[in-house]
Each structure stands twice: as structure tokens, then as C-alpha cells.
Amino acid sequence: MAEKHIVRVTDVTKHFDLGKIVVEVLKGIDLTIETGKYISIMGPSGSGKSTLFNMIGGLDKPTSGKVFIDEVDIAQLDAYELAWLRCRKIGYIFQTFNLIPVMTALENVTIPMTFAGVSHDESLERGMELLQLVGLEGRHSHRPSELSGGQQQRVAVARALANNPAIILADEPTGNLDLKTGEDIIQLLKTLSSSYGVTVISATHDYKMLNVSDQVVWIRDGRVDKIQERSELEIRTGGLGTVEAEP
Amino acid sequence: MRRLVALPMGKSVQMAYQSIKVRFFRSLITTMSLVLAVAFLCYILVGNDLAQALLSTGDPVLGQKLISAGYDVAPGDTSLAATAKQRWIVFLSLLVCVVGIINAQLMSVTERFREIGTLKCLGALDRYIVRLFVLEAAMQGLTGSFAGMLAGILAATFSGTIRFGLDIFGIYPFQEIMISAAWAIATGTGLSLLGVLYPALLAARMQPVEAMRVDQ
């Protein structure tokens, strides 16, 4: 049986033209991501990790090569279709949480549903369910400034799930959280990924992520260095040997 | 399947209102320059209305008072136009006001780049962003102009009473003053919208990837 690939990246390069010099950030990346997996993209800063990540999220277009999300070539999409894709297919989680500061937790969770054309009552109901799912019942009327970092990230997770996306893209989701809260968020993402079949793709430096990842993609110097399945990680290193191996 | 994203007008108005309400102090500062400019405009317009009404009475004593108050009326004149000097000052004050609004709105866009980027990541189209900014500016424009208009009328009436005595209430030109007030509100709202145009376009062109930026 053919496995379904939610993301397919073929021979992608990305150059940034900085006037006098052209920086090659990605130098030909091939990658396929299966539906329902929990993927971590790892790599040192400057490796092109974020650029690849933005490409997968439809936030940036490749210089050459193709990026398919759910078998749709994102280079072919116009502004409306891209907005639709971001709204319906992809849920974003940011390092800096990025909740809308003037809105309450519930309103933050319901905006993507408003964009998707869901009726007001229905979105409120689903918003409350989602907040409950991430463990924030009773906090729906709080503004982001009245919530802790971990709670804000939980709201962001609920918001990312609002339109039942196929992919959740998490950019360093634990980067601004302490150890314990970070682990809670990782566990939450893992639970959601396994119970809803959502593909979670996260760019990260955080080695706590390795324990829950089905697959780890190492990026180095604009190329895929290696792709490790979870079993390999555990057998070889138990998580930390690989850490030492990295500069 | 129709792949469309939506933002109903009612929801946009609510979002814009909420944004102003929560950042009330900030909005107040943005609106303040508009209030002052509209108040000044309205003061000049209403002052001229009052002077015109006094002149129309044909009373030579009131005509003399007008001249001593600095109005350029020759004996026998029946109408009185805004002087070139007045027009220039009003024009300059409105110009300064627009520049102030643009400046404040640009700062507001810069401050909110992450919010704008996030909205775009969640599926907002460029025109929703423009709409939010324009709605905010329209609300600020209307309230600011209304406040400025009231202040202008009060100030003009007060200074008229001091210069010409209580006589002005006998000939108080309600209709003309209402027209002047409408002009002042329209001008103020128009200026507010004019000032937000460039910042709103700038905001709409912002790339969603900005939301990912970590450094401030």
C-alpha cells in the first residue's frame, strides 16, 4: 500500500539576493513527510532549517524545485488559495506564541474559524472544546497578558487546531518556555498528533523533542544531513550521543 | 469546492473597535492631533458664521465692533469671506495634523507587525488587514472630529460672547453653524482616512513570515 505523503519537497534550492552577494541557503533538498508522523527538523542556526520550515509552511517560495503540500504545488497557488491553505490545511505554532494581544483566549482560538467561514455560535462552541482539550477550561475570557507563557502556548495550540488542519507547523515551540512547561507542550503536541492523526512538523534545537519524534531530519549547510527514525535514535544513543556528535 | 476565506463586516468592525478600546491611551494620542486641528477649523468656520450673522443685521454699532475685533469689513459690506490669512493657517494646521496621523499610524503598524503576520498565517487576505486599519481610522476620525467640532463651536461661541456681548445669542445662526460642523466632521474623518492609507497598505504588504521573526 502506498503511504500518503502530506509534504513532498523535491530538489528545492533557495537563494537570497542581498544586492552584492547571493546567499545560497538551501542547496537542493529532497524530503517526503508521511501523514500522521511527528517530525522534528534539527540543525544548527544558519543551516537553512528555518528557511526549509517556512517553505513547507507555504510562507516562502523556493528559488527552484517544488514543494507539494497535500499533493498541491504551492508555487502554482495565487494569494487567495495560499490564504485558504494557511487557514484550512496548516496550523502554525510560534516560538513567541503570537496571540493577538487585544483578544481573549477564546477569541484567539476562534479567529481562524471566522476566516474559514464557520458561524459565530459554532466557532464559540468549538473554541471552548479546544480550550478544554488543551487544559485551559475557565481561562477563556483571559487576555494573553493575563496568562503564563505555557498557558499562552496552549492557547496557540488550540488555535492551530481550530480548522482541523492536516499539518501543524511548530517553530521552536518550546524556545521561550522553561523545561517543565516545554515538556508539557511537547507531550500535548504528541498526544494530539497520535489521537487526531495530525502531522506535526517542528523546527527545533530542543533535544527533549527527540523522545517523541517519529523521525528526525538533520539539516546541515543547506542539505539534508541524515534522516533518523525513532528506533535508530534510541538504539544508538538514547538521545544524548547524537547531541554530542553535533558541533 | 470554493476555496475562499471570509471575514464578515460585522466581525471586522468588532475587531477594529476592540483594538481601539484595548489600546485606548494610544488611540487617544493618535486622535488628539485630529481633535485639535478639527477644533481649530471649526472655531474659524463658526467664528465667521457668527461674524456674518452680526454683519447681516446691518446694525452699525455691531459693524464697528466687528472692525475693532479685527475683521476686514468696509462700511456697507453685506458679506464676509474667510481671509487669506485664515485659510493659510487652517490649511497648515490640517497639514501638520495629517503628517501627525501618518506618523502615529506608521508606528502602530511597526508595533503590530507580529500581529499582522500572525493574522496572515491564520488565513487573512491583504484586504482584511487594510480594512481593519481603515475601520480603526474611521472610528478614530469620527469620534475625534466630533469632539473637535464640539470644542470648536464652544470656543467660538465663548469668544464671540466676550467680543460682541450677549447680542450674538439673539442672532445665533444655527443653520450655518450646523453646516460648518458637518464640514468640520467630514474634513476630520477624511484626513484620518487619508493619513491611514499608506500605513495600511504597508501593513497589508507585510509578509506572513514576519510573524516567525524572533528578534525585536
UniProtKB/TrEMBL annotation, chain A:
Cited InterPro entries: AAA+_ATPase, ABC_transporter-like_ATP-bd, ABC_transporter-like_CS, ABC_transpr_LolD-like, MacB-like_ATP-bd, P-loop_NTPase
PROSITE patterns, alphabetized: ABC_TRANSPORTER_1, ABC_TRANSPORTER_2
PANTHER family named among the record's database cross-references: ABC TRANSPORTER ABCH.1, IMPORT ATP-BINDING PROTEIN
Protein name: Putative ABC transport system ATP-binding protein
GO molecular function: ATP binding; ATP hydrolysis activity; transmembrane transporter activity
Domain ABC transporter positions: 7-246
Keyword annotations of the record: ATP-binding, Nucleotide-binding, Transport
Species of the source: Desulfopila aestuarii DSM 18488
SUPFAM superfamilies in alphabetical order: P-loop containing nucleoside triphosphate hydrolases
Domain of life: Bacteria
TrEMBL record, chain B:
A Pfam family of this chain: FtsX
Residues that span the membrane, as ranges: 24-46, 88-107, 128-157, 177-203
Keywords for the protein's UniProt record, in alphabetical order: Cell membrane, Membrane, Transmembrane, Transmembrane helix
GO cellular component, one term: plasma membrane
Protein name as it appears in the record: FtsX-like permease family protein
Annotated ABC3 transporter permease C-terminal domain residues: 89-208
Localization of this protein: Cell membrane
